[in-house]
UniProtKB/TrEMBL annotation:
Its cofactor is Mg(2+). Residues 1-158 form the Obg domain. This is GTPase Obg. It comes from Eubacterium oxidoreducens. GTP binds at residues 165-172, 190-194, 212-215, 282-285, 313-315. The gene is obg. Mg(2+) binds at S172, T192. One of its GO terms (biological process) is ribosome biogenesis. GO terms for molecular function: GTP binding; GTPase activity; magnesium ion binding. Belongs to the TRAFAC class OBG-HflX-like GTPase superfamily. OBG GTPase family. NCBIfam families: Obg_CgtA (TIGR02729), Obg_CgtA_exten (TIGR03595), PRK12296.1 (NF008954), PRK12297.1 (NF008955), PRK12299.1 (NF008956). The keyword Hydrolase applies.
Length: 428
């Protein structure tokens, strides 16, 4: 069974409590405090396993927790650290916070291992609290709790080219002819239940990976049919290969088919339509109506819009090589790095919401000063020198209500905001 989505609860280990004890030894009646520190809780880690290609293991188990740290012991002995829990996932898995849908980790490209939830810090033993006036402290610090969060795991297939089109237009046949993939092929809708991956080998290292994105029908973006389950795989691709049935063997119009599929892609994510696209009119060997020049109609409709149209027959092989080389040309014009989603959600920032922030106006320097643990942590995570990083930080300020707080203080366009030594001008 192919499983490309799973909802699970993950938790890092709690830090062990600090220990309360006093040194006891023969001839030493009142020894000092010697309670050891608690061990650190285990981290919750995601790691890519090249041998996996599905999330099936997470379909039947809901909760995953790292080990808690052990309590400290007497004689200044530190408790044992909790064991990390490593969750193995296939390359291309995106970890998202369940409620907001924001990305926590994208296990793609060079990101083969990521600590998603850090274990709680161990508490300090009573030895740390001895002072000149309190030489026998009877308390120790409790361990810091672990982090717990519900997440979606989504497998987004990593391929250079996404193969889209209605069922029965010949996508699986095309894939089987040009790659080493062996998709099941039959004459009924939703034949392809899994995203099939295949490698196209071309001379001079111009080969590429192609993925058959199954189940696309009208209404797919709204969850109708199987389409919504597979649309997410198109996000990874660098180019789109749109196959249509030029012979209209099922009575559909190929021009209308292109618009219908594009409508679903746009409804799911408008950025998909910005990818380089090639329309391929398939089944030209099955055109028996001389008055039906579907290929020319497709050219007249889409080439003025900058989308090239080519013709082929996946069954006979006519035109296949030309299509493959054209796809390779399209890929040469795109970024060769795989699409990797940036982190949007930082669990240690959002799970503990009690950390405050302050916003106030400094009359002497004529600046608005914003400070607080959350702000300082987020500045450490974000490269605000880049445009994307600055926009992400600005979004964080808005979501936390900080911009609204500044507006209440009377901030206006052009006023200066200071955050831990960084200054920038405020504009709505």
């Amino acid at each position: 069974m192919f499983a490309d989505r799973a909802r699970i609860i993950i938790k890092s280990g709690k830090g062990g409590d600090g220990h309360v004890s006093f040194h006891r030894e023969k001839y030493i009646a009142n020894g000092g405090p010697d309670g050891g520190d608690g061990g650190k809780g285990g981290d919750l880690i995601f790691e890519v396993d090249p041998g996996l290609n599905t999330l099936y293991d997470y379909r039947h188990r809901r909760k995953f927790a790292a080990e808690d740290g052990e309590e400290g012991a007497k004689r200044n002995c530190t408790g044992k650290n909790g064991q990390d829990l490593i969750l193995k996932v296939p390359a291309g898995t995106v970890v998202k916070e369940a409620q907001s849908g924001k990305v926590i980790a994208d296990m793609s490209g060079d990101n083969l291992r990521q600590i998603v939830l850090k274990g709680g810090r161990g508490g300090k033993g009573n030895q740390h609290y001895a002072t000149a006036t309190m030489q026998a402290p009877k308390y120790a610090q409790p361990g810091k709790p672990g982090l717990e969060i519900e997440v979606w795991l989504e497998l987004k297939v990593i391929a250079d080219v996404g193969l889209v089109g209605f069922p029965n237009v010949g996508k699986s046949t095309f894939l089987s002819r040009v790659t080493n993939a062996q998709p099941k092929i039959a004459n009924y809708h939703f034949t392809t239940l899994n995203p099939n991956l295949g490698v196209v080998d071309l001379p001079e290292g111009r080969g590429f990976v192609i993925a058959d994105i199954p189940g696309l029908i009208e209404g797919a973006s709204e969850g109708i049919g199987l389409g919504h389950e597979f649309l997410r795989h198109v996000e990874r691709t660098r180019a789109i290969l749109h196959i249509v049935d030029a012979a209209s063997t099922e009575g559909r119009d190929p021009v209308e088919d292109v618009y219908a599929i594009n409508k679903e892609l746009e409804a799911y994510d408008p950025k998909i339509l910005e990818k380089p696209t090639l329309i391929v009119a398939n089944k030209i060997d099955a055109i028996y109506d001389e008055n039906n020049d579907a290929v020319q109609r497709l050219k007249d409709e889409f080439e003025p819009k900058g989308i090239q149209v080519m013709a082929m027959s996946a069954v006979s092989g006519k035109g296949l090589d030309k299509v493959l080389y054209k796809v390779a040309d399209l890929l040469d014009t795109t970024d060769k790095q795989p699409v990797v989603f940036e982190q949007e959600y930082f669990p240690e920032l959002f799970i503990f919401n009690e950390e405050p922030y302050t916003a106030q106006y400094d009359e002497e320097d004529d600046v608005y000063v914003v400070e607080g643990p959350k702000i300082e942590k987020m500045l450490g995570y974000t490269n605000i020198d880049s445009e994307k990083g600055f926009l992400f930080f600005q979004k964080f300020l808005k979501e936390q209500g900080i911009l609204e707080e500044l507006e209440k203080l009377g901030i206006e366009d052009g006023d200066t905001v200071r955050m831990y030594g960084l200054e920038f001008d405020y504009y709505q």
